Amino acid sequence: MLERLRHPWSDRRAELVLGAVACSVAGAIALMIAFVAVGAWPTFAHNGLSWLGAGGNPETQIGNMLHTGPHPPAVAYHLRAWPLIYGTLLTAGLALVFGLAFALLAAVFLVEFAPAAVRRVLSPVVRLLAGVPSVIYGLLGVLVLAPFVGNHVISPAEKRSVQYVVQLDGTGLAVAVVVLTVMITPIMVALIADALSEVPAAWREGAVALGVNPLRATLAVSLRAIRPAIVAAGAFACARAVGEAVMLAMVSGSDAFSPKPWDGVPFLFEPLLTLAASIFRNAEGLSAPAVRSSVDAFALLLLFSAFVLSLGSYLVKLPLRRHHAGLR
Amino acid sequence: MNAFPEALPVKAPRPRRSSLRSWRWGDRLFYVLAWASGLALCLIAGALVLYMLVRGLQYVSPSLIFSRPRAEVNQAQIGGFLDPLLGTLLLVAIGVVLATPVGVASAVWIVEYGQGRVGRRLARVVESSVEIVAGTPDIVIAIFALTLFQLGAFSFLSFTASGGGVYGRSFLTAGAAISLLAIPPVFLATRDGLEALPGHQREGAFALGKTRVATIRRVLLPGVRPNIATGVTLGMGRIIGDTAIVFLLLGVGASERIEPQSGPAGLNVLRGTGSTLTSYIYSNSPAGEGAAPQKAYAAAFVLLAMVLALNAAAGFISGRGRSGRMSFGDRVRYGAWA
Amino acid sequence: MKRIRRLSAALTLSGVMGTVAPVAALAASVITISGATASAPLVTLLAQKYVKTHPHQVKFKIAQGGTNVGIADVAAGRVSMADVSRDPLPSDPSGLVFNPIARYFVCVVTNRSNPLANLTEAQAQAIFTGKVREWGQVPGSSAHGTIDLVSRTSAAGVLTTFQTLLLGNKSVSQVASQEPSEGLLQQKVQSDPNAIGFLSDYFALKGVNPVGFNGVGCSLANAESGQYPGVAHFYEVTRGPASGAAKAFIGWIQASPVARKIITSAWLPLH
Fold first, then answer.
1. Do the chains contact at C180 and A281, CB–CB below 8 Å?
2. CB nearest to A285's CB, from C72, C145, C175
3. Of the candidates A25, A40, A74, which is a domain's last residue?
4. For position C17, what pLDDT does the model report?
């Protein structure tokens, strides 16, 4: 039989087979979206729009769904997912803002000011950091950073000020945002630095020739020129931050609490939980249909956000494309 | 008219580096911030690398690498991570074996056959879905795969317990799910390589009377071998680093050892459960049950060494390829930032 | 050349699997278990012994997740039986059969640096419901500052048992941090000098300080004699009456002297 397969194929057969393989990829993705969407429908149907609202602790609500059996009553689907959505927005947003600012400055440094020796060492190191598995970041966060914050940064007075509402132990918003920022910045640095070095030298030199100092030339000319790349880097890093499950489950405190900015300094240390981390923590309870529906709903939200991010970055880059024909 | 007196040609004056004093305030601030960020980057990167190096070397030993995990009360002292290491290698093998043909075949189809009204539309759909996969969080893929493989139709991939429940967790199911992560790098690298091949190669082959299939097989594919290799290496990097899919689909918590099911040798391991370095690190961190941070550090060190080696290999392979060194932007577009 | 490459790849793969795959087992039925983290050590020991004394008959796959995860799994038919560490609740799915296999007891625990000897019921209730939040207000403790309450997630059977037996049916405060397993709760209490929590006896008697209740120390002897109030049952829950390999295993646990010896090593037998 193998011999028959080894005989030269006709173009038609090859086209069909290869096309089938290619379409199977598209089919698998469509299947994934369908599975998740169909699975998520019951929880949306039972909760309506207030599914997105606040009202209690979603982890407790999911925990109560566990022993409702194979045919749960409608009340079993009760869920208010706002703390999880808020946690995701908070950590990803803060990490993106800090990371982007830091990455822009560091990329400018790398391309402009770094001595050649430093650049030779730092470039591969940054690429290495971009490829480190997230569980290792989580390990360092939970073994080094969280105990340090818990024992040396949080003061007993701060703990006392929120002690009737929540417990502070080191894992929480600050550690989560710091580790997430450290995780997504190397990617952005590498992307932006690469894009900066691809800007035609003539553009910058023209600005310098007109009397602009070198830094301003970089800022005014090169950074403006690579705006599509910056948007792409930001979108990519944001997608990674939103989808990060394991690392955040280790360092974010794993309590579906909404950190309150008006608490003052304790706000930085309050625990939280994100959508992806919640999926991760509840993955064992999928036998209960209510849990499965809620988890599918979180997954649908994550898929939706990934889609929105890529669409958004495409739309943002569209007007920029007119001006930057040569650059991606 | 010459406004200047005759003079010998003078060397162009070397541009004086504009002193900081002549800059605007905003530029000066930016300058300081840029230097601060750069130094901070060096410090953080250096601290991370050095810390992992120190901790890893402190705890790694050949006995750890080559002994199997043992479920003892005194977790910290006993047992190594041979099984998780083998689990990682096995999972990478399965993922690559599944992802490479699919990625290469899809790319070949899109570039060579995706013409015509229907073909072009289908090609856009396939490209969009690959992009969607590249952007999907791995936890979503894991949830989808878990619910899919717990259906009765897929019980051959894992096993069915007495009571009727399909377990849904095994190396095969985890490998199938994780291959989805490796498909985008292979696909995009192959596609870029095929599009970069000069048209005259194809035209020459057609002129000599070869069919499209034969051209692909004998002319084009060998030409993009470096691209395929780069894509596969990047995909391997993504597979090695993934935790969520392994956690959900390989059954951590059950055991760290590779536990084969019943069946013919080979298939029984594939249908059985086990662990990988990533889930082993998680289990032995304070977030998991192990409470053995030394083993976690040692495993993290080995994992980092593997990632570093793959990084270097990818860079080396892409450097040898026709298209020259691949920029980081290309790597990221392939959905593999490693 | 290609064939050599293919052959060597196949050899490597089989070599990798060969180093870890023992001789192919004969067709054996598989018992999958999930559920309580409190009874997992006991069930693991029992399963290991059962496999040794009944070779080639069954294989076990033991997962955890918490009592309610086990109940959900067994009600959905996803596992053969569930480890459960609490008594049946009216809200449990119908059709489940609770087979008792052993007894255990629940202790309040503190960090070893805080050798709290005893709590009355009123004190325990005040602390765990969140009325009292400062160690200074707890007589007999040497810790200072905020009380760090450590509890379990709502999947836990030990939580239900603790609330019913030692807290007078009151609920643990929402302030408490919720750990998904006994082991993690134990770790938390071990590493935090200001922590207080509750554990089943297997975990409570190592690494942490067990606290007496109403004047009775939390120990195996006191639980055996009936003086300590926090005693409950471990169950194996099946969907419908146990059948097949699961029935044989449960029957063996309940009847065999070998199993009884394992149970009495750290827990209480049924009678």
1. yes
2. C72
3. A74
4. 56
> Is residue A3 assigned to a domain?
no
Domain-wise residue ranges, chain B: 40-335
Note down the domain range covering A21: 10-74
- The Cα of A69 is separated from the nearest Cα of chain B by a number of Å equal to 15
What residues are paired with C30 via a beta bridge?
C59
Q: How far is CA A116 from CA A2, A7, A122, A223, B41, in A?
A: 56, 56, 10, 21, 16
**A114 touches B at CB < 8 Å:** yes
Please check whether residues A121 and A22 belong to one and the same domain: no
Instruction: Report DSSP letters for C173-242, one per residue.
Output: PTTSEEESSHHHHHHHHHH-TTEEEEEEHHHHTSSSEEEEETTB--SHHHHHHT-SS-EEEEEEEEESS-
User: A201 and A181, same structural domain?
Assistant: yes
Question: Does A194 contact chain B (CB < 8 Å)?
Answer: yes
pLDDT at B324: 47
Q: Which CATH superfamily is domain B40-335 in?
A: MetI-like (1.10.3720.10)
Token pair in block for residue C142: 């040497």
Partners of residue A57 in chain C, C-beta under 8 Å? 174
- Written as one string, the DSSP assignment of B37-63 is HHHHHHHHHHHHHHHHHHHHHHH--HH
Q: Please, which chains are in contact with C (at least 3 CB pairs closer than 8 A)?
A: A, B
Q: Are residues A118 and A242 in the same domain?
A: yes
Stretches in chain B below the pLDDT threshold 70? 1-21, 70-78, 161-164, 252-256, 262-263, 290, 320-338
Statement to judge: residues A49 and A124 lie in one domain: no
| Helix or strand holding residue C36 (H, E) | none
Residue A96 lies in a domain: yes
- The answer as to whether A2 is a domain residue is no
Mean pLDDT of A194-216: 85
- Give residue-wise pLDDT tens across range A136-164: 999 999 889 988 998 888 888 888 888 88
Convert the pLDDT of each residue in B37-92 to its tens digit. Answer: 988 988 998 898 899 889 888 888 887 778 777 665 555 566 778 888 999 999 99
Strand (E) or helix (H) holding C104: strand C96-110
> Residues A206, A226: one domain?
yes
HEC string of B297-328?
HHHHHHHHHHHHHHHHHHHHHHHHCCCCCCCH
Q: For residue range A63-97, list pLDDT tens digits in order.
A: 888 888 888 888 889 999 999 999 999 999 999 99
pTM above 0.90, yes or no: no
Q: Is the pLDDT of residue A326 over 80?
A: no
A310 and A288 in a single domain? The answer is: yes
Q: What is the mean pLDDT of residues A169-179?
A: 92
Give the pLDDT of residue A311. Answer: 83
Residues of chain B contacting residue C24, judged by C-beta atoms under 8 Å apart: 260, 262-265, 268
Residue contact A284–C65, C-beta within 8 A:
yes
- Mutation pick from C34, C45, C60, C61 vs chain B, by most beta carbons of B within 10 Å, is C61
Contacts B72 to C, Cβ<8 Å: none
Is the pLDDT at C23 greater than 60? The verdict is no
B237 touches chain A (CB under 8 A): yes
Q: At what angle do helices C2-20 and B82-108 cross, to 10 degrees?
A: 150
Chain B neighbors of A127, CB-CB under 8 A: 311, 328
Last residue of a domain, one of A23, A44, A74: A74
pLDDT, residue C1, reads 61
What is the band of C123 on the pLDDT scale with cuts at 50, 70, 90? very high
Please name the member of A110, A136, A249 whose beta carbon is closest to the beta carbon of B304: A136
pLDDT tens column, A211-259 = 888 888 888 888 888 888 898 889 889 999 999 999 999 898 888 888 9
Q: How far apart are CA A320 and CA B204, in angstroms?
A: 40
Query: What is the domain count for chain A?
Result: 2
**Contacts C61 to B, Cβ<8 Å:** 161, 167, 251, 254, 259, 273
